[in-house]
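hi! just following up on the protien thing from before. the input was this:
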Amino acid sequence: MLPCPPRLPSPIDDHRPQDDFDDTDSAFGGDSFIGDETKTLSEYITEYRYEYGRRYHAYRDGAYWGPNDEVANEQQDLAHHMYLITLDGRLHLAPIENPQDILDVGTGTGIWAMCVETILRGSRCCIADSIFFSRDMADEYPSARVTGVDLSPIQPIFVPPNCIFEIDDMAMPWTYSPGQFDFIHVREMFGSIPDWDEFFQQCWRCLKPGGYVEVVEHSVEPVSDDETVGPDHFYNLWGDTVVQAGNSFGKSFTIWRESADRLRRVGFEHVVEHKYKWPMNGWSSDRKLHELGRWNQYRLHNGVEGFMLRLLTSTLQWPYEQAQDFLARMRANLRDYRTHAYLPVTVCYARKPSDAPIVAD
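and the predicted 3d structure came back as:
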């Protein structure tokens, strides 16, 4: 596991002054990132790959399909805003009590982890021009520590107290101690995990007895309740293509409908699943759904290229022009208010039994 360095410019444009020490100093061990045979840690994880003008993570290159550039990061923050609207300003639904150690898996820009840390200290949390304040949680957890983990070092340089970020691949064996966390938050890890049963086993191992895991995901297959998404609608082709690409990539996009059963299979109890809808645009007359639809339309219109370009061109081997035509068709359909389509969203949480033993490695 690597500590997260400050966000740095692309190595192509990096004109930082050189440190005035001798790289060949024998004080640096053979496994150090400092030395004549290796690059510095910051250079290693920020030597990004560029494809078709989009920037992708360097650490465990190719393990994830999404870019980590500013356009993609904005989509992550917009999704966070949508989840806050969906959950009426709450950052989680699990009934956690006095958590001392929290893990945010796939933290991305770190926005959830920082908001949790801020709210746990009794402060307001400002997201996308909306302010949410949790009266029930304020001042209750003054000593909580929040750890956010991601493949990309895209988190801010200045972070709240008791909030740290690490670079790691959570699809690999975890290095955390058994029974370390009170709460594990997992959000939008679809298409990132090759073996979800093993992933939830890792969650089980690293949770304290009585601790909670919460999985927040949405579908990639737009549906409707009034048959406006008919059998021949483009949204069906879109959903089938995303699912096919995920399966070919070896990391499925269907965990949104599988979390509850998989958590039960591992041994979690008190499994609770809440279901929501994200309209594809502002077609709904319901005030909340209308707002979510407008945000979702904006997020997808600007974000579908980052969401699908690598999967289409690298995984499915589509020509770039064919991929762009496919994305253009998606953007066009997002402007069709006659189709009452939405993405199903699930928030599923579960508890590790209080009498579960902590098994040492």
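The CA atoms of residues 326 and 354 lie 50 Å apart.
The two ends are 17 Å apart (CA to CA).
cheers
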